[in-house]
């Protein structure tokens, strides 16, 4: 396998681990991180809610998730779950 394939496999394993962790527990809202938000947003993307996600990010002054301020993580996480 090429290095690219190995890197992709590793990233997919990390993503899967995140999904498993969320499935097994309720997320503690005090410890929300960007990965928790990313998982929820990816679920919504897979359901075709792209415009809703873009509007949510824009509400928090961001074009992409990496631009969301840490202090907004809890609020955006809660709103993303409700989409």
Write structural notes for this entry.
By secondary structure, the chain is mainly α. It has one domain. The protein is 66% helix and 0% strand. It is built from four helices and no strands. The protein has helices at 3-24, 34-46, 50-59, 73-82. The longest helix has 22 residues, at 3-24. The mean pLDDT is 86.
Which terms summarize this structure?
about 80 residues; mainly alpha; about 65% helix
Measured distance between first and last alpha carbons: 39 Å
How large is the share of residues in beta strands?
Answer: under 5%
Helical fraction: 55-70%
Radius of gyration: 14 Å
Poorly predicted tracts of residues: none
Mean pLDDT across all amino acids: 86
In short:
With 83 residues, the protein is an all-alpha fold. It has helices at residues 3-24, 34-46, 50-59, 73-82.
Topology, element by element:
Elements: H1 3-24, H2 34-46, H3 50-59, H4 73-82
Helix pairs in contact: 2-4
